[in-house]
């Protein structure tokens, strides 16, 4: 399964400020955006981290949060039960299929590949970066 808008650009979020910037830019542009954790980040942040940020930030419906669980199928399952789609490129195919079967009735994606993403870490102005990413899409 893919995210509801496969053409949406991706950003990597590693702080609440990153997710807030993505949400603001997404709301302003009215364009979809995928906000994913860095590769494998759920292993050190825990599966509850991204859902807590989403709850705190209240992003618009066209912002799609994804937890990159790498090979951690258990963390992926927990993320799904917390309402967050997952990226599991290192989980064996059979495990990906099981996760997808669980995610389908929830309307959540289980992705087997990471997309190219704009990393917001280390940027002085993540909001400006998100706006620049979405501006061409908003004018199209």
Overview of this protein structure:
This protein has helices at residues 16-29, 42-45, 49-57, 73-81, 93-103, 126-139, and strands spanning 10-12, 33-36, 63-68, 85-87, 110-111, 117-119. It has 140 residues and is of the alpha/beta class. It has one domain (10-139): Aldolase class I (TIM Barrel, Alpha-Beta Barrel). A 6-stranded parallel β-sheet has the order 5-4-3-2-1-6.
Features:
TIM Barrel; six-stranded parallel beta sheet; 6 helices
Summarize the structure.
With 140 residues, this protein is an alpha/beta fold.
Radius of gyration: 14 Å
Look at the structure and give the CATH class: Alpha Beta
Could you give a short account of the major beta sheet?
A: 6 strands, parallel
In CATH, the homologous superfamily goes by the name Aldolase class I
Beta fraction: 15-25%
Average pLDDT: 93
How many beta-strand segments? 6
Strand line-up in the sheet with most strands = 5-4-3-2-1-6
Shape descriptor reads: globular
- CATH topology label: TIM Barrel
What structural category arises from helix and sheet content? alpha/beta
Distance between the termini: 26 Å
Helix content: 40-55%
Order of helices and strands: EHEHHEHEHEEH
Low-confidence stretches: none
Number of helices: 6
CATH architecture: Alpha-Beta Barrel
Overall structural domain count = 1
């Amino acid at each position: 399964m893919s995210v509801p808008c496969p053409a949406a650009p991706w950003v990597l979020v590693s702080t609440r400020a990153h997710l807030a910037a993505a949400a603001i830019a997404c709301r302003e542009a009215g364009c979809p955006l995928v906000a994913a954790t860095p590769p494998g980040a759920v292993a050190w942040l825990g599966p509850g981290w991204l859902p807590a940020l989403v709850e705190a930030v209240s992003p618009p419906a066209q912002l799609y949060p994804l937890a990159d669980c790498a090979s951690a199928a258990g963390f992926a399952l927990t993320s799904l039960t917390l309402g967050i789609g997952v990226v599991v490129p290192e989980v064996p195919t059979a495990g990906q299929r099981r996760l997808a079967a669980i995610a389908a009735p929830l309307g959540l994606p289980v992705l087997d590949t990471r997309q190219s993403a704009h990393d917001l870490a280390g940027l002085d102005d993540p909001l400006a970066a998100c706006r620049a990413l979405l501006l061409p899409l908003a004018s199209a």
